[in-house]
Amino acid sequence: MDKLKKVLSGQDDGSPDGGGILERANQASTLAWGTRMKGFIVCFVLGIVCSILGTCMLWIPGIGLAVFAVFYSVGNICALASTMFLIGPCRQLMTMCAKERALATAIMLVCLVLTLCAAFWWKNNGLALLFCVLQFLAFTWYGLSYIPFARDGVIKLFSMCV
Known about the structure:
Blueprint: H1 2-9, H2 21-28, H3 33-57, H4 64-87, H5 89-96, H6 102-121, H7 125-144, H8 150-161
């Protein structure tokens, strides 16, 4: 009966074994819609709280910037992971690597790693702050890619201002 539902809804890929190992793992770990929404909300709110808490910690003398970099990066990871509850991890990774988002995703993840390296390994506060700003811009550009024509509107707005 499940096979018939998949065929009629257009979700059947025609493979006799039921898909690859990732697809079978994804199907075995599906969550109910209510659970997905709760996970999304909790993860997203946790990301916002971490980012706000990091911003508040920025003004602590001596260790403030390093703590900010960690909390801000963890907040971005939580916000990014929150959408995995809505569409699933496999589909999330596929959409992150789609051609219209691949560059923003790569820049965002590289800046996230470089933020933590600058804060802890290199101990360079200026670089950590620069990478946080770049991380924010890349995350914003990544998020705008999900809204139709949003990137074009932003580009047009900035070209009118310059």
